[in-house]
Write a structure and sequence with these properties.
- The protein is α+β, with helices and mostly antiparallel strands and 202 residues long.
- The protein has one domain: Fumarylacetoacetate hydrolase, domain 2, CATH 3.90.850.
- 15% of the residues lie in helices and 33% in strands.
- Strands 1, 2, 4, 5, 7, 8 and 11 form a 7-stranded mixed β-sheet that branches.
- The longest helix is centred in the last third of the chain and has 11 residues.
- The protein starts with a strand and ends with a strand.
- This is 2-hydroxyhepta-2,4-diene-1,7-dioate isomerase.
- Pfam families: FAA_hydrolase.
Length: 202
């Protein structure tokens, strides 16, 4: 199982980090060891003093494929969820400044938080609200209508390079409002009005 992640997929988030709006999806990967075990707290790693939350809608691939056409992409996933792409922002900045890959800042153990998955049939995927609160204060509020690349765009693009397999996960990008976590913070994620997970920071 692989975790494909899309960077800079919401224009306002790209702007808040000083990045250009991409012409094609920006892709990076996380190993399966990045998944935080369900029910576990997130522990800030010793190598970073600036870990940021990034809430994202996550797709679970239910039908494998290669060179998937955009018109058929919707047939390749049946469930969606929410996830946090934890990012060691200080480490990422150092790596980017040296022209090096981001994996150390993005793929460390526990850096991929996942909710339970729900059927996509219950939602309007082109107009889907999702949000994150930190200590009961909303910090991120996104809607999929603001994505630069849609779910189907992402699947079609990624499958040109990677064969998608059942169980693969795709983190589809984060809206503006990313920020630092500190010890004892409580993060809660909502899909529309439904809370999908809560997470304590240690």
């Amino acid at each position: 199982m692989k975790i494909i992640c899309i960077g800079r997929n919401y224009g306002e988030h790209a702007k808040e980090l000083g990045n250009e709006i991409p012409e094609d999806p920006v892709i990076f990967m996380k190993p399966d060891t990045a998944i935080l075990k369900k029910g576990s707290d997130f522990y800030i790693p010793e190598f970073s003093d600036d870990v940021h939350y990034e809430l994202e809608v996550v797709l679970k691939i239910s039908k494998g494929g290669k060179y998937i056409q955009k018109d058929n992409a919707g047939k390749h996933y049946e469930e969606i969820g929410l996830g946090i792409d934890f990012t060691a922002r200080d480490l990422q900045s150092k790596l980017k400044n040296k022209g090096l890959p981001w994996e150390l800042a993005k793929g460390f153990d526990g850096s991929a938080v996942l909710s339970d998955f729900v059927s996509k049939e219950s939602y309007d995927l082109q107009n889907l609200n999702f949000s994150l609160t930190k200590n009961n204060e909303q910090v991120q509020n996104g809607n999929t209508k603001d994505m630069i690349f849609s779910f189907d765009d992402i699947i079609a693009f990624a499958s040109q390079y990677f064969t998608l397999r059942v169980g693969d996960l795709i983190f589809t990008g984060t809206p503006k409002g990313v920020g630092k976590v500190s010890e004892n913070d409580l993060l809660e994620a909502f899909l529309e009005e439904q809370k999908l997970f809560s997470l304590k920071i240690q």
